[in-house]
């Protein structure tokens, strides 16, 4: 099974969502495609506010992570600059994936599945075999596989307070 999505082919930080942008150039996407300058903006212009939120919340999350374990916020002075200059580009170590996670406890990939419904669908269709421990209605964790389920990348669902909670869960995973 191949990964399908946007980002660095050599990623170590992966976010999984159920849908890809509804744009002709991505309909037959079958690999991990590094984005180029201006491509996030083009997707936002073509697909609307929902995709703008996905990219913004992803960048805000990376920027909120503990600098001791994650270097993302060291690359740019603001999360907006990080989004525009590094997010999902070649050598960014980040990916936004529309395929299922391939879990391997021996690798260092951090996996984040966005949305409880998406996680449950992956499990029910046999595409995810994880030992999830539900912390509450929105967050679950499988520490062995460095996997977290969180709310969807949207300002209302993954608010700044929930981004901080997710950042803390990721910090704990890195310390294991």
What is the SS-derived class? alpha/beta
Mean pLDDT: 95
The side-by-side strand order for the widest beta sheet comes to: 3-1-4-2-5-8-7-6
Distance between the termini: 28 Å
Number of domains: 1
Say what oligomer this is: single chain
Question: Strand tally, please?
Answer: 8
Q: How would you sum up the major sheet?
A: 8 strands, mixed
State the shape: globular
Amount of helix: 25-40%
Radius of gyration computed on alpha carbons: 15 Å
Secondary structure topology:
Elements: E1 5-7, E2 13-16, E3 32-33, H1 39-47, H2 49-64, H3 79-85, E4 94-97, E5 110-114, H4 116-124, E6 133-134, E7 140-142, E8 147-150, H5 160-175
Parallel strand pairs: 1-3, 2-4, 2-5, 5-8
Antiparallel strand pairs: 1-4, 6-7, 7-8
Helix pairs in contact: 1-2, 2-3, 2-5
Description of the structure:
This protein is an alpha/beta fold and 176 residues long. It has one domain. The chain contains five helices and eight strands, in the order E-E-E-H-H-H-E-E-H-E-E-E-H. It has an eight-stranded mixed β-sheet, sandwiched between helices. Helix 2 packs across helix 3. The longest helix has 16 residues. It is globular. The mean pLDDT is 95.
């Amino acid at each position: 099974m191949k990964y399908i999505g946007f980002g660095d082919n050599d990623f170590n930080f992966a976010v999984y969502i159920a849908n890809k942008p509804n744009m002709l150039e991505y309909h037959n996407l079958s690999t991990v495609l590094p984005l180029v300058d201006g491509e996030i903006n083009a997707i936002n212009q073509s697909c609307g506010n929902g995709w703008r939120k996905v990219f913004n919340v992803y960048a805000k999350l990376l920027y909120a992570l503990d600098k001791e374990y994650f270097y993302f916020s060291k690359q740019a002075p603001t999360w907006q600059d990080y989004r525009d200059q590094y997010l999902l580009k070649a050598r960014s170590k980040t990916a936004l994936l529309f395929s299922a996670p391939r879990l391997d406890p021996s690798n260092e990939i951090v996996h984040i599945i966005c949305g409880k419904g998406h996680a449950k669908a992956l499990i029910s269709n046999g595409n995810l075999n994880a030992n999830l421990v539900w912390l509450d209605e929105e967050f679950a964790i499988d520490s062995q596989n460095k996997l977290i389920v969180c709310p969807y990348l949207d300002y209302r669902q993954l608010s700044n307070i929930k981004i901080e909670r997710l950042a803390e869960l990721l910090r704990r995973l890195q310390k294991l």
